[in-house]
């Protein structure tokens, strides 16, 4: 069985494109996870994407996670609500001043609380100033990402509200994959 999936690619080509969201009320902090931790990164990936069919990395080995996290210019920024991980944004520097927002999202219990717009704003700003933290890297000239019809219902609107512009759309059939939940056997949502 298969499903039709639409994938949208969006970009910003200047730091001035970023339209930041207001910070949410309460004790929400965003902190860079500076120590590469496959365990923590897998936890974030599975917890954020378990109800929206993020499955590409679930089969990765510890070594694959470590290799990905140790690539120069790769950063993970984590939102905490009163000390509890609420979501994350992962950045990956590419060649010639391009930075991809590889993953972005919130754990389901933290959605709808205005944390997502703030986290995306913060993550995009960190993509724009990434070269300041990675000596030898070219200054960022483009930040891009992709989202798809399997992602959360407010994802595309959040990207557009933050100043990202659509530059490509692709529609294809994909195999139907069960929603895995945050760990095998868990009920999502």
Automatic annotation (TrEMBL):
Keywords: Transferase. Residues 28-186 form the N-acetyltransferase domain. CDD domains: NAT_SF. It comes from the Bacteria. One of its GO terms (molecular function) is acyltransferase activity, transferring groups other than amino-acyl groups. Gene3D superfamilies: 3.40.630.30. It holds the Pfam family Acetyltransf_1. The keyword ATP-binding does not apply. The keyword Transferase applies. This is GNAT family N-acetyltransferase.
């Amino acid at each position: 069985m298969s499903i039709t999936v639409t994938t949208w690619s969006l970009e910003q080509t200047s730091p001035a494109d970023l339209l930041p969201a207001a910070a949410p009320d309460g004790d929400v902090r965003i902190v860079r996870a500076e120590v590469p931790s496959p365990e923590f990164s897998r936890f974030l990936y599975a917890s954020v994407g378990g109800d929206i069919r993020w499955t590409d990395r679930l089969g990765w080995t510890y070594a694959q996670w470590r290799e990905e996290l140790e690539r120069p210019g790769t950063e993970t920024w984590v939102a905490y609500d009163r000390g509890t991980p609420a979501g994350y944004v992962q950045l990956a520097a590419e060649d010639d001043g391009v930075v991809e927002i590889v993953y972005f999202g919130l754990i389901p219990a933290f959605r709808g609380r205005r944390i997502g717009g703030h986290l995306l704003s913060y993550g995009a700003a960190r993509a724009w100033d990434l070269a300041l933290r990675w000596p030898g890297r070219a200054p960022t000239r483009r930040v891009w990402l992709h989202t798809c019809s399997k992602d959360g219902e407010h994802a595309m609107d959040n990207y557009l509200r933050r100043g990202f512009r659509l530059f490509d759309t692709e529609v294809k059939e994909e195999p139907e994959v069960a929603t895995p939940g945050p760990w095998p056997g868990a009920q999502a949502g």
